[in-house]
Amino acid sequence: MLTKTKFGKLSNKRTVHLFTFENTCGTRMSVTDFGGIITSLSTPDCKGHFADIVLGYDTLEPYLQNPAYLGAIVGRCANRIGYGEFILDGKKYVLTKNLGMLQLHGGIQGFSKKLWEYELLSDKNTLRLTYFSIAGEEGYPGNLKVTIAYTLNENSLIIKYEAVTDKPTIVNLTNHSYFNLQGEGGGTVYNHLFRCDADMFTPLNEELVPTGEIKSVEDTPYDFRTFKEIGKCIKEIEPGYDINFVLNSEGNIHKLAARVEEPRSQRFLELYTTQPAVQFYSGNYLDNIQGKKGHIYKKHYAFCLETQAFPDAPHHPQFPSVVLRQGEQYAQTTIYRFGINGRNI
Predict the structure, then answer these.
(1) How deeply is 214 buried, as exposed, middle or buried, from its count of CB atoms within 10 A (0-12, 13-18, 19+)?
(2) How many domains does the chain have?
C-alpha cells in the first residue's frame, strides 16, 4: 500500500508531500518529495513490537535546514570533494564550498534541499522521484536528469538511482539515512554488531578527504570482516567512524556487502549494492539534535551505510571513475534488507 498526504509548504508556497508505504508484514516507511528524505521506517523486533529505526524529524521545518542530512538523497556528488574543484577533459570546474575549502554532499543547496517531482507506482509499491539539475548548479557542468525510485517489498527497501546528462559531468549519489536498530532515540549504537565484507579502505587526511591510498583493514580499527561491536574500537579513532570501505562484492547486487545486528531487539539490517564502496559513519557530529517525539540525538546515536563510489574520485585517477558522459546512463541499486535474527521480516 502506498498513500500520499501533505507534509507542509515551502516559502514559495509549493506543497511538500509525504508518501507512506506499508507492506504485508506491517513494516511502514515514509518518504518526502523534499530531498527524497526517508522520514521514518518502522519494523518489528523479536517480540513483534514495532519501532522506527531511522532518525528524523516530526515536521517539515527542521528538514529545510537538516545539517546532518538525516534520511536525505545527496548529490550531485556525495561525500567530500577536495579543494571544492575538479578538472574534467582539461577544464577546471570550481564548485560551491560548504565545508571550509571543500564541497560536501553536493554543496550549499544540493539534492537534499530540492523539491522533486513524483510519480506513484502503487501496483509496485514504488515511489519515483525526478529532479532536473541545470548546468552550473553548485558549479557542476551539464544538465543532469536524476531519477530515484524507492520500493518497499516484504522484507527490503530497494533504492534505484538513475541519471543522464547532456555534457560530461561527475555523479555520485547516495541516501544518508541514519539507523538505530533499537529504535531512533534509543541511545548509542555501541552494542550493534557490524560486519563488512571489505578487505580494503581508503585512508583519509586531516580534512577527512582520501589520500589516494587503498589500504588493508588488517590490524586497524576498520577490520570488520568478522562481527564486532561498533563501540569496541570507536575511541581509537575519535571522533568515530567515517570511512570508505572498498567492498569485496564488486558491484554484485546478490552478494552480501554488510550486516548489522542489534542483540536486544534481534533486528538485523543487511546491505546489498551495485556500488563499489560504502561509507560507514557512526553519527560523530550528531550534536544534541532534537528529533522525533522529543528525542535528543547525540554523538554515536546512529550509524549510516552510504553506498557510493570512492570519495574525491576526480582527484585520484586510480579510483573508479565518477564521470558521466552524454549517451551514458548512471544506474545503481542499493538494497537494505530487514529481519529478525533467524528469519526475515
Answers:
(1) middle
(2) 1
How many Å apart are CA 327 and CA 246, to the nearest integer? 28
Q: Judge whether residue 343 has pLDDT over 70.
A: no
| Residue 260 resides in a domain | no
Residue 129 structural domain: 2-186+278-344
The backbone torsions φ and ψ at residue 124, rounded to the nearest 5 degrees and listed phi first, read: -110, 5
Catalytic-residue membership of 270: no
Amino acid identity for residue 174 in this structure: T
d(CA 330, CA 169): 11
Question: Is residue 214 domain-resident?
Answer: no
The residue type of 173 is L
Q: Which CATH number belongs to the domain containing residue 45 in this structure?
A: 2.70.98.10
184, 261, 262, 306: which one is catalytic?
306
The owner of cell 559531468 is: 169
What mean pLDDT do residues 17-33 have? 95
Residue 224 lies inside a defined structural domain of this protein: no
User: Residue 125 domain-assigned?
Assistant: yes
Q: Which of 105, 176, 295, 300 is catalytic?
A: 176
Question: 230-276, pLDDT tens digit by residue?
Answer: 999 998 999 999 999 999 999 999 999 999 999 999 999 999 999 99
Q: Any bridge partners for residue 150, and if so which?
A: 127, 159
Largest CA distance in the chain: 59
| 176 is a catalytic site residue | yes
pLDDT tens-place string over residues 274-293: 999 999 999 999 999 999 99
